[in-house]
Amino acid sequence: MEYIDGLVSIIMPVHNSGKTISESIDSVLAQTYRDWELLIVNDCSTDNSVSIIDSYVRKDSRIKLFHTDISFGKPFYPRNLALKNANGRFIAFLDSDDVWLPLKLEKQIPLFEDRNVAIVFSNYVKFDTSSNNNFNRKVITANKLTYESALYGNQIGNLTGIYDVSKVGKVEFLNEGHEDYILWLMILRKGFIAKNTNSVEAKYRVSSASVSSDKGRSSRWTWHIYRRILKLNFFSSLYYYAIYAVRGISKYLK
Questions:
Q1: Which candidate among 150, 151, 167, 243 keeps its CA 20 to 30 Å from the CA of 118?
Q2: d(Cα 126, Cα 100) in Å, to the nearest integer?
Q3: What is 4-213's CATH number, 3.90.550.10, 3.40.50.300, 3.40.50.1820, 3.30.70.1560?
Q4: Is 86 exposed, middle or buried (0-12, 13-18, 19+ CB in 10 A)?
Q5: How many helices and strands in the chain, by DSSP H and E?
Q6: Phi-psi region of 9 (alpha: psi -120 to 50; beta: other; left: phi over 0)
């Protein structure tokens, strides 16, 4: 597989993100690590998202815009479309309402020098810009993850994760709930580890419409991953699910 060594391909799906996408793109432009390309996939937006993106494309050749033929309503297809057009050794993800801090890539890329590391991630902050529910909460996760420890629940915020194509190839998203968690598990199952920068390098925007806010659906997706995607036996699935549930309750009570 051909790729450009050192280049980070940043994948950004977009659907009606006119209110937030400039902030997201600006956070990429502010990166101190300059060797990147930003692949934006417009999923049939009907607002001013495309005109905003076009203004950036005209200014910076590293920013590229693609379009889906129909609206999928899920990020897996736009992300996979961008992945097919990615040229970088490293694949990173940033949704069109989230934000990176300037040192994110500079801190992450050197950690791939460890041949056992295929994923690098970071801690992040959850924030809500609505006037009714302003908050900032740090999400601090594990120092490193193996496939075994990752089974206890997803600790890699998708907006923070980067994987190394030279070690695992291009790994596509499945059309499943928690598709990002499945992606990390598929990579770690190859025997690699995921390494945390142990610093806060991104900001995740929370809203009442966030998919992750539906705890019941999230738990059903997790059970489905254990049983149907990973094909763990019933008792192994029950074991990991119980730990996942206890951790979820603990986080809720904090």
A1: 243
A2: 12
A3: 3.90.550.10
A4: buried
A5: 9, 10
A6: beta
Query: Which residue is it, tokens 């300059």?
Result: 34
**Residue in the block written with tokens 């194509």:** 165
Q: CA 137, CA 249: separation in Å to the nearest integer? A: 17
Give bridge partners of residue 39 from the DSSP assignment. Answer: 11, 64
**45, HSE (Cβ side, Cα atoms, 13 Å):** 23
Amino acid at 155: Q
Is-contact 122 200, C-beta < 8 A?
yes
Question: What DSSP string runs through 81-109?
Answer: HHHHT--EEEEEE--TT-EE-TTHHHHHG
The pLDDT of residue 212: 47
CA separation, residue 63 to residues 16, 29, 55, 66, 97 (Å)? 18, 10, 10, 10, 17
What is the spatial distance between Cα 80 and Cα 139, in angstroms, rounded to a whole number? 27
**Residue bearing tokens 């051909």:** 2
DSSP β-ladder status, 88-93 and 162-164: antiparallel
Instruction: Decide if 250 contacts 210 (C-beta within 8 A).
Output: no
Query: What are the tokens at 63?
Result: 């920013």
